[in-house]
């Protein structure tokens, strides 16, 4: 599912079996923090997080449940489980038959969906504010009591395998990205695709999904996020009623899986039926972990964010001007991206599509030359000012959307960031200097931390063209129900 996380994106996805009696004196739920826009965060009696963002401008509400589990929490041989379970969460509970969840939400006048990526899984409903309690009852039921027969799994796994074919196997560029990730990461679980390897999907069993749900869908590992025309205290009471009564359960131990130091360039040549070549380069870079008291590595990550936006963050940015325009153009498209905020390790990516008569190697060299130019000549304060202005505008614009507000709050929670991350980040990015951007351009783009994947086009058949046309309409970022 394509997702927009404002600034975080640029660092680049009835009838509960639980007790329904409202406690006459619910246990105190301390406010952990409150941001400038009025969002409040609580801890329910069972350890589940509740985040509420009042917005009275329209009589609507967004209800989301975020679970801190994604493909990075899988093990080899069981890739794709987080996404498979996302699909199975629509297949019923003891009181809601398969398929009825979506029908009930639609009957309430709402829209709903779900999404999975490396770091998390999420579920949401956008409904009239007066129907909030109904969707809380529904969602808490399937969170705690997801249940379905083996026959439902066997049907749905075939749907997921077809989804993999359409989004990845029949899409050369998506396949190339999959190959790049597999080559970039050795120990990190990021080397596995979110949708899973086809062989793992072939061998997956119903109990694999049930066990995954039992292990990770526990109160301590989830957050309920609600934004819209709501009363905070009433929402807190409803959350205790429907979610707080779910029994506590210990989380599995998450063992660190640090990536070994890369000691030389890695290359992947990938052959697939395609019209054009394509090149992707991945460089290992520092993570942005602490925005409250940034350390040296955090400051480098922010400077890398700035570098990425200077290179391709707006129409007419450096890569656009120098690689895709004018008589010396080498690329039909060129881009950069700094993925520095995640539960796992971070990368800076460069990529491009050769123009007619040019090669992938020429595009690769031209992309690296632009980074080297920044390392040698630096960037101007005017370029950084333009980037800051755009980020400020995008943050303000996103807050006009109730869904955008809930989405930001949930993604911040999943990544262990404070509620006011966007405001803090904007303030910190204003402190990044041209000298810092020049410095990271000089230090993080050598051969040893670089992985290159190149699509080598093969002749296209009519069947290939038809398959790729079908694939073109599918989402590419993460996976979605």
Notes on the structure:
The protein is α+β, with helices and mostly antiparallel strands. The protein has two domains: 7-242, Cytochrome Bc1 Complex, Chain A, domain 1 (2-Layer Sandwich); 266-472, Cytochrome Bc1 Complex, Chain A, domain 1. 41% of the residues lie in helices and 18% in strands. It contains 17 helices and 13 strands. The chain has helices at 7-10, 81-88, 100-107, 132-145, 150-169, 172-184, 198-203, 206-216, 232-242, 296-312, 318-323, 360-377, 381-398, 402-414, 421-429, 434-443, 462-472, and strands at residues 31-34, 40-43, 49-54, 60-67, 111-116, 121-128, 222-228, 266-273, 278-285, 331-339, 346-354, 450-458, 479-480. The strands form two sheets. The protein has an eight-stranded mixed β-sheet with strand order 1-2-3-7-4-6-5-13, sandwiched between helices. A five-stranded mixed β-sheet has the order 8-12-9-11-10, sandwiched between helices. Strand 1 (31-34) and strand 2 (40-43) form a beta hairpin. Helix 2 packs across helix 8 (206-216) and helix 12 (360-377) packs across helix 16 (434-443). It is globular. Mean pLDDT is 90; it is low at 1-31.
């Amino acid at each position: 599912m394509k997702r927009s996380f404002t600034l975080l994106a640029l660092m680049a996805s009835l009838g509960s079996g639980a007790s329904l009696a409202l406690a006459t004196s619910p246990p105190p739920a301390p406010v952990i923090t409150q941001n400038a826009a009025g969002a409040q965060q609580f801890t329910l009696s069972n350890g589940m997080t509740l985040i509420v963002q009042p917005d009275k401008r329209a009589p609507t509400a967004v209800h989301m449940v975020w679970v801190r589990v994604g493909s990075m929490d899988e093990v080899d041989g069981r890739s794709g489980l987080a996404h498979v379970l996302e699909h199975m969460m629509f297949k019923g509970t003891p009181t809601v038959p398969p398929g009825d969840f979506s029908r009930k939400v639609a009957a309430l006048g709402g829209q709903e969906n779900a999404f999975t990526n490396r770091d998390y899984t999420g579920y949401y409903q956008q409904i009239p504010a007066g129907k909030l309690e109904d969707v809380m009852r529904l969602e808490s039921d399937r969170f705690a009591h997801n249940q379905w027969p083996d026959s439902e799994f066997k049907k749905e796994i075939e749907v997921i395998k077809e989804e993999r074919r359409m989004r990845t196997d029949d899409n050369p560029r998506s396949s190339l990205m999959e190959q790049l990730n597999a080559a970039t990461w050795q120990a990190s679980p990021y080397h596995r695709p979110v949708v899973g390897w086809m062989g793992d999907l072939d061998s997956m069993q119903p109990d694999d999904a049930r066990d995954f749900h039992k292990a990770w869908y526990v109160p301590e590992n989830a957050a309920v996020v609600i934004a819209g025309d709501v009363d905070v205290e009433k929402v807190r009471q409803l959350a205790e009623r429907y979610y707080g009564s779910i029994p506590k359960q210990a989380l599995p131990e998450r063992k660190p899986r640090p990536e070994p130091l890369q000691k030389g360039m890695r290359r992947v040549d990938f052959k697939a039926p395609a019209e054009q070549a394509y090149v992707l380069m991945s460089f290992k870079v520092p993570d942005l972990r602490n925005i409250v008291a940034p350390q040296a590595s955090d400051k480098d990550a922010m400077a890398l964010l700035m570098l990425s936006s200077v290179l391709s963050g707006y129409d007419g940015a450096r890569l656009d001007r120098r690689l895709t325009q004018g008589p010396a153009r080498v690329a039909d498209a060129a881009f950069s991206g700094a993925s520095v905020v995640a539960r796992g390790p971070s990368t800076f990516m460069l990529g491009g599509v050769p123009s007619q008569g040019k090669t992938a190697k020429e595009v690769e060299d031209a992309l690296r030359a632009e980074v080297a130019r920044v390392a040698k000549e630096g960037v101007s304060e005017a370029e950084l000012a333009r980037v800051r202005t755009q980020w400020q505008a995008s943050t303000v614009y996103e807050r006009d959307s109730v869904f955008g507000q809930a989405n930001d709050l949930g993604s911040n929670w999943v990544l262990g960031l404070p509620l006011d991350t966007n405001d803090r980040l904007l303030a910190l990015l204003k402190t990044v200097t041209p000298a810092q951007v020049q410095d990271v351009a000089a230090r993080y783009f050598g051969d040893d931390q670089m992985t290159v994947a190149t699509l080598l086009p093969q002749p296209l058949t009519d069947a290939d063209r038809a398959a790729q046309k079908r694939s073109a309409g599918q989402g590419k970022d993460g996976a979605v129900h």
